[in-house]
Amino acid sequence: MARAPRQADIAAAAGVSQTTVSLILSGNTDGVRLSESTRQRVLKAAEKLGYVPDPVATRLASSRNHMLGVYTFASAFPTDVDGFYYPILVGIEEEAAALGQDLVLFTGTGGLEAPADDKLAIRRTRIADGCLFFGRQVPEEPIDWLLGGGFPLVYIGRRDELGGRIPFVGVDYVAASAAVVDRLVELGHREIRYLRSEDDAPSSSDREEGVLAAAEKAELDARRIVVRAEDAEVAALIERWRGEGVTAVVVEETDTGSLSAALLDAVAAAGLRPPDDLSLAVLGQPKDHPEVSGFEVPRRELGRRAVRLLVDQITASGPRIAEHVLLDCIPVAGSTIGPA
Q1: What residues pair up with 134 in beta bridges, in sequence order?
Q2: Residue of 61, 189, 239, 305 with fewest CB within 10 Å of its CB?
Q3: Among residues 235, 240, 236, which one has the least CA distance to residue 224?
């Protein structure tokens, strides 16, 4: 089997020194005077010979290889286009291509005998110039380790861990959730329940903060509004709330979508017709239910903005700032909210 071409072969074909070839292929030509004709001759020789640079060697030589990592501490990569993370990944791919960046997909432990949140497992991300991270929770030790080493990273989703040192692009769930409750109050609803998961992820806490802010502004009894529940408990809650005179139910939409799905199923099983019998709102548009009122999370733009922020982190000439970006949600009028 023929050996792979080397930089010495390119130098011979282009009629230049191997040092010149190395400088041109690495992009590390700052302070070196090279004519454009020489650069083109080297690149054409490399292409003709089928030369593929070693990304690790390129990174060592130039400190950049135009590769961005994508890493998740949970199962985030979709198996179909209806997956919660699919639009985010589409946005990441689109913006990376627009900025001339390649993507490296890190899938958990990569065969290592370590959990995905172990810093030995995520050490592999350093082959890239920087990395985007997913997950409802932040494994603080490995992320702190990366930040301490000066590695550029951006988290997708609002993060307040590690003293606000984590750069992120998130969503303004507080304002969007408050707007949904404001709408219900304007339509005369006074007995409102907010259904949320047991998980304490920032996205869930932000939604609750918005719901409670709107409830307090309307002088509702905030102590009765928030109810944490598992999927299996939802049907019984609906039956209980009917007896309590509840006229509107708001539910959060998480990455799994299971809680909102359980609510919609329970309402249908009880024979209730929104909004005539009960007003419904989902804080995050559930798939297959475009008629449901609430708001849509700008997931595609979330991915695009995260890539732009990461590239800014990578190319920053001075000290990196932990920039925090929040995107507005898109209101969905739907047809499941009506007068009390």
Answers
A1: 72
A2: 239
A3: 240
Distance CA 186, CA 183 (A): 5
Q: How far apart are CA 265 and CA 238, in angstroms?
A: 11
What is the C-alpha to C-alpha distance for residues 88 and 309, in angstroms, rounded to an integer?
Answer: 14
**Dihedral (CA of 13, 16, 22, 24) sign:** negative
Nearest by Cα to 251 from 228, 229, 283, 220: 283
Q: Which pTM value belongs to this model?
A: 0.77
pLDDT digits (tens, 9 = 90+) for 47-77: 788 776 665 555 555 567 789 999 886 565 6
Distance CA 83, CA 194 (A): 24
Domain covering 67-171+300-329: architecture? 3-Layer(aba) Sandwich (3.40)
Q: Would you kindly state where each structural domain of the chain is located, as residue ranges? A: 7-62, 67-171+300-329, 173-297
Nearest to 332 by CA among 211, 205, 177, 169: 177
* Contact in structure between 267 and 280 (CB atoms under 8 Å): yes
Structure tokens at 246: 């509840």
Task: Tell me the CATH number for domain 173-297.
Answer: 3.40.50.2300
Give the integer Cα–Cα distance in Å for 173 and 168: 14
